[in-house]
Amino acid sequence: MKDKSEGHINAKKENSGSGYLPNKSKFIDHASKFSITSLKPHDTFEVIMDLISKIFDSDSCSLVLPNPNTNRLDFVSAYGIKAEELGSSKVPSSKEICQWVFVNHKPFISTDNGNKEPFKDLLRSESDYETYNVAVVPLLLNGRCLGVVEIINKKSISAFTPEKIELLKALSQKIAVLVENELLFDRCSNQFYQRNTMLDLAREVNTTRELPDLLNFIVITVAELLNAEASSLLLREGDVLRFEIAYGEKGTELKKFTVPLGAGIAGSVALSGKSTIVNQAEIEGSGIFKEIDKQSGFTTRNLIAVPLRAKENIIGVVEVVNSRNTEGFSEDDIALLEGFSNQAAIAIERAQLVEKRIQAEKMATIGRTVAGLAHCIKNMANALKAGEYIVDKGFRDNNMDLLNKGWNITKQGNERITDLVLDMLTISKKREPEYSLCDPREIVTEIIDMTKEQASDKNVRVETKHDETLDKVKVDRKNIFRCVLNLFTNALDASEKDKGIIKIEIFKNKKKPFFGFRIIDNGQGISEENQKKLFTEFFSTKGSKGTGLGLSVTQAIVSDHGGSIKCDSQLGEGTTFTIELPKGI
Q1: For domain 13-188, is the CATH number 3.90.226.10?
Q2: Cα–Cα nearest to 110, from 141, 80, 131, 81
Q3: Within 10 Å of residue 180's Cβ, how many Cβ atoms?
Q4: How far apart are CA 65 and CA 145, in angstroms?
Q5: Do 13-188 and 203-355 have matching folds?
């Protein structure tokens, strides 16, 4: 046992003297001062338990109070032998002395009765401590019992005299005032905490979040806020409420149920717009929709339901079920939940609008994609039909020139279809690049060789420039090759015959481990309006010759590498595309 200090009395067992009894009035006056002491309530309780134990020359003294969250009594403060064990034990049985005194509001006094069977039953305890006499008095205040004080094993011969019992009763009144003050303080502190928490949660619930995450946050929050076992959120769909999400035991079972408007508590709240508390769900006529309990296997003991009101519309109901507090839900709980639910309703309505807008944008994108694909495939099909017609005519006329011409048109059409499919796969989802070491100069050389005939047909001059200090880099060679090829062929298409000049530069970023390609042409340039649409799927300035996917694919590949692409252009002066990529090594 620790020594007590700073107002605590050093009351070790060996220092206890029999017959110690100060003047009653001085003792009570001394105890009364604890009500205005600067000590914390539990510290005050310890001091009083020390004092009583010394006065009564007993082995131990305990303060036992009801736990508001259970139906049991708890040892709040204990002094003396077995104090640590008592401090962690409960009083579970109705046969316990403390429970009897608490329920009946009457003191229990017994001396040297350890051998009597009825007394032994009453003294049954979770501790193995042997009890041979005991005094337990109720802490009464305004007709209510707030707890009990228990004194065990008085060592003196006189045991519990009437005078000492009267003294204990008088002191218990002072302790009752202390307990009441602590309960009031705890209640005020809890209300203050709840309201501050509610304000924080109102701010939190209005942050940007997707609808499923928002609903999950709401049901978990309200259950914790009101110290309840479960909660659910029902959203209105026409003439019924649907369990959108539920938290707690059997929560997943509830999602398959609907509640008609006007049925049960939730249906009535949605129809009337008035919050409801039911603290005795088992009573006939309580309004609980018992069919859901029956089918889900959940047992509703008590319930609070408030409407989710967005402006003038009730979009749903929040239910909080089975309060862990013995007294159930209160009007304060309604006020707290209504304040939070009003904010939640606005957030839900906003999230629903955002979700609808996103869905509409998805549908619009799908529509544009289908329209773009249809346009591209139509052009390719026309080219294939033209090639087919020329091939057929070459067969009929036995003309090899026509056969070759028609076959070349057909091959080009097949290549365009293949490119379209590859481009669609590239932009359909993010893909991890397949990295390998390569020389950027080899990529440029290969592209120039591949497009040599096209450049020659238009008499376009191609110039190259590269940073001699740039070594090999680690990229997805195949896809970066596609990107540079796309930009180079775009530059060829934009170049004027006999006047076109295209420059391909390979550079190294001197400030960070990046390198890049720069493709510069002196072609017709791109308007500011079209520059804003360059990377949009199916946007093309080439008419039927383009799919409108080349730049979108290029941007997707560059983005997958963690790089960037930009365009600088002036109408009539030319265009510069710059790709910058991490070196990867």
Answers
A1: no
A2: 131
A3: 15
A4: 9
A5: yes
